[in-house]
Design goal:
This protein is of the alpha+beta class. It contains 19 helices and 15 strands. It holds the Pfam family Cpn60_TCP1.
């Protein structure tokens, strides 16, 4: 049966009225259910995509990435107003910030926990009892997950990356992109000897050719053109200065930009000429400092005056300005081994970095990329190619998920079978554990187990299979052959997930379970909603009473 597609939008836009007690609980459960159901169709390799169209109907996004969907809703006119919807959006943001993946699973699991809680509330259980039972169940689930985990190996990393990429437009190029991700993570982690930081892997996309033409570079790619067209387009063995200070005297953008408390009074042409000469002298001094220290290339996060650009071009120095973010500047400095300069007065030769080569390339879309290569760099850049805009955007989102998943597996050191295998195995153990409890928490632990199985149920449903039959078969298979068996949505069969290479990091599963529990716990313990206007009127009422006394 088709559901009303407008319902989730109504919830995201809808503003709950002041409520308490049973009305509050009913509102929480209804919104959580609709929100979870709305996101559930984007889970797994057989997931459906959402097309999000902006208000002007020209800009749109086609994606199955949970974090992207919720982020766009939050930025567009569909601003979430209902407190439960807001909490779900914040949950997805927190999951993406902490682990970079698993946002959809977290939201879906939180919704299932609240669905099961609603059944218990209707049976007469107090929300606090349910929350306490869920807390006990979470503690046991984390223990069981650790028992099911296996150590991470180099081969496992490749499979983790492929699993993360499985839900995006990468079926043809999945293996090639996964190898690229693993090579990148091993590079930034010094071949696994150090902790991998996903931020050290930079992604740049450029339309044209196909995804199979994507390339990994040791170094950094700057999405900017050179400051002056007469600057050299290629340079080898270059000393690189990375600066975070403006090389200009423009008001609000130059060296006095942070403190523009100065005035220049010009009375005649000679005064204007003297002022221009003074500006030129200041700029010349900046240029000379950079030239004399031996910089072959100057890269700044802020503006560089066009006059300095001309002098650089005459001396054969490359200049690049306005690097988009501070994170990009940090990655760039790490790629060339330079110290970021914030004061030109203190610059020294040892502050400069080194690049094996710097090369500017122009693409058919008239955009220029500058490739800064360094074979010893601890940061890498992956240049993604693709045809349609929405395809390459989805590949980029998939690559981000794969990079985070692979780094989590390497840093955490443990992996688990995916495809719902872990959830079914933990649910079975939780049901046995629940029988050891002699109070009402037993029901909550069993409900937690049922909620966990919401993940494999969703994977099966999205594959077009009978969730009841497949889940029963999966439980029986695990009892007979072991807990590593799960549902492979690609071939719609039950198989050994470890042998099939469908695996996920333990740290990701732990984060999903914790995030979903914390959200469900917060909402279960919420008794009423007090909006700002109501609270403000109460304060005014109390003040009025005091004045009347």
């Amino acid at each position: 049966m088709l559901t009303n597609p407008k319902m989730p939008l109504d919830i995201l836009q809808g503003e709950a009225e002041k409520s308490a007690g049973e009305d509050m609980q009913t509102s929480i459960f209804a919104v959580a259910k609709e929100f979870s159901d709305f996101m559930a169709s984007t889970l797994g390799p057989q997931s459906l995509h959402k097309m999000i169209v902006e208000q002007d109907r020209w800009a749109y996004i086609v994606t199955s990435d949970g974090e992207t969907i919720l982020q766009r809703f939050d930025l567009m006119q569909f601003k979430a107003k209902h407190p439960v919807a807001r909490l779900m959006v914040e949950l997805s943001k927190a999951q993406d910030y902490d682990l970079g993946d698993g946002t959809t699973s977290t939201v879906v699991l939180a919704g299932h926990l609240l669905k099961e809680a609603e059944k218990l509330v209707l049976m007469g259980l107090h929300p606090n009892t349910i929350a306490q039972g869920y807390k006990v169940a979470l503690k046991q689930a984390l223990v069981y997950a650790k028992e099911l985990a296996s150590p991470t190996t180099r081969d496992n990393l490749l499979r983790v990356a492929m699993t993360a990429l499985d839900t995006k437009y990468t079926s043809v190029s999945k293996e090639q992109l996964s190898k690229m991700v693993v090579e990148a993570i091993m590079r930034v982690s010094n071949d696994g000897k150090e902790r991998a930081d996903p931020k050290d892997v930079h992604l740049v996309r450029r339309k044209g050719t196909g995804v199979l033409h994507s390339t990994l570079y040791h170094g950094f790619i700057v999405e900017k053109k050179m400051l002056d067209d007469s600057m050299p387009e290629r340079m080898e063995n270059a000393k690189v200065a990375v600066i975070d200070v403006p090389l200009t005297v423009k008001r609000y953008a130059g060296i006095f930009g942070d403190n523009p408390l100065h005035e220049v009074e010009i009375k005649d042409v000679d005064g204007l000429k003297a002022h221009r000469e003074e500006e030129k002298a200041i700029l010349r001094d900046m240029f000379v400092k950079l030239r004399d220290v031996g910089a072959d290339c100057v890269i700044s996060r802020k503006l560089i005056d066009h006059r300095i650009g001309r002098w650089m071009a005459k001396e054969g120095i490359i200049g690049i300005q306005a690097i988009p973010t501070k994170d990009d500047l940090k990655r760039l400095s790490k790629a060339v081994g330079a110290r970021i300069i914030s004061d030109l007065e203190t610059i020294r030769e040892e502050d400069l970095g080194f690049a094996d080569s710097i090369e500017a390339k122009r693409y058919p879309d008239k955009e220029t990329l500058i490739f800064i290569r360094n074979k010893h760099a601890n940061t890498v850049t992956i240049l993604l190619r693709g045809g349609a805009h929405h395809v390459i955007s989805e590949v980029e989102r998939g690559m981000k998920d794969a990079i985070h998943a692979t780094s989590n597996a390497l840093n955490g050191g443990w992996i688990l079978p995916a495809g719902g295998a872990c959830e079914v195995a933990i649910a079975e153990r939780l049901r046995r554990y629940a029988l050891t409890l002699s109070d009402k928490r037993q029901l909550a632990v069993q409900a937690f187990a049922d909620a966990l199985e919401g993940i494999p149920r969703t994977l099966i449903t999205n594959s077009g299979m009978d969730q009841v039959k497949i889940l029963m078969d999966l439980r029986r298979t695990q009892r007979e052959k072991g807990p590593s068996y799960g549902f492979d949505a690609n071939i719609r069969e039950i198989r050994d997930m470890m042998e099939a290479g469908i695996i996920e990091p333990l740290s990701l599963k732990e984060s999903v379970y914790k995030g979903a529990f914390e959200t469900a716990d917060t909402l279960l313990r919420s008794e009423s909603v007090i909006y700002g206007r109501v609270f403000e009127s109460r304060i005014k009422s109390e003040l009025k009473k005091k004045r009347e006394r």
